[in-house]
Amino acid sequence: MSKKAILIICDGMGDRPVKEYDYKTPLEAANTPNLNKLAEEGLVGLMDPISPGIRPGSDVAHLAILGYNPYECYAGRGSLEAAGAGIQLKPGDIAFRANFATVNEDLTIVDRRAGRIKTGIKELAEAINQIKIESVNGVSVEFYPTIEHRGVLIFRGEKLSKNVSDTDPHEIGVKPLKSKPLDDSVEAERMAKALNEFTEKSFHVLKNHQINLNRVKIGEKPANIILARGAGSYFKLKTFQEKYGIKTAAIAAVALVKGVCRIAGMEIIDVKGATGGLNTNFNGKADEAAKAIKHYDFVFLHVKATDVAGHDGNFKAKVEAIENIDKMIGRLIDQLDLNETYVTITADHCTPINFKDHSGDPVPILIHGPETFHSEIKKFCEKTASQGNLCRIKGIDIMAILTNYMGISEKFGY
Ligand code: ZN
Ligand code: ZN
Fold first, then answer.
1. pTM
2. Which tens digits make up the pLDDT trace of 334-365?
3. CA of 276 to the centre of ligand 2 (A)
4. Rounded to 10 degrees, what is the CA torsion of 49, 280, 326, 29?
5. Measured in angstroms, how far is the CA atom of residue 373 from the centroid of ligand 2?
6. pLDDT tens per residue, range 283-325
7. What residue segments make up the domains of the chain, in order of their start?
8. Which of 216, 246, 263, 362 has its CA 20 to 30 A from that of 299?
9. CA torsion 282→268→99→157, rounded to 10°?
């Protein structure tokens, strides 16, 4: 009989030895009785999300970990963000991550997040959606607000390419950038032109909008321009159902991760209070995962908090996030039949607190299940993982290993 599996990704959990904390990593310093128990009874090793030294974005790392070669299928971040927001792209569409920002009269950016605007977003989006693209034939544009200042911008029409640069300069005190084609194609030129026209028009439509006039009156920053980044095009993946014939569900709060899971054909389960931040609903995630594995063969569970702390360079916050994850895992395994279920815990990359970004180091991984050898490792962390019985694998190997244990993999050869 085939077994079930839960794959838990603690985003950016891996780290480097931190001098100020006695050369410990946050995972090493954290009190993690549940992770330690699973590590001792299971397989432990290191995992290179892509390959040694390659610094991955969360998007390509998740593709690899879920068994898709990102070098073959990755089509830009915008399309994953769109899928995460539940927007169906069509072949030919180009999607961008977009955000409301605040600019001065001379277009200098004052705030890339428009004071993290929370109200009036629907009205502003309606105004933006009146914009018509005139400089390029047969192209229309749609803006979908998601959370706070964030949204997805989609250009539809013929002959468009994702090979264009961002309008978002990723800093304040400068003007929005002009999007440029990144190759010599007509498609890239058309896309850049349409995006530049849209950006200009977004300012004209938004600057005197009643919502913004009201915001200025009460001392808030107006949301008076749309900045775009991370162009992506439509792409398709073979779903888990098609690849392995299994039913799958995903628990994730971050749009990008949701997008990868949705394209992989997973059912998305929303957890109340799951924020993608440090204060997410850890207990709710554990309970929903325990409930889901009763109805699905494979459940994917993502926690963002560790990556947030890593980007903030906050050792203590990262330790706390890891301890919260450990409690979440304790609560989850209490509700599981461990004779029937494989539990895998790893990260999608390291986000070292002294680097404050994703590094190309390997991350620790553990696989616990009814037929795994015991590593006898007492503390789950980066250092001990290098001595574990799983040795060193790549992200793309994980699904092969899991489907092998689950008893659902195809034989290669006769
Ligand atoms: Zn990540
Ligand atoms: Zn990150």
1. 0.92
2. 999 999 999 999 999 999 999 999 999 999 99
3. 11
4. 80
5. 32
6. 999 999 999 999 999 999 999 999 999 999 999 999 999 999 9
7. 4-73+237-406, 83-233
8. 362
9. 170
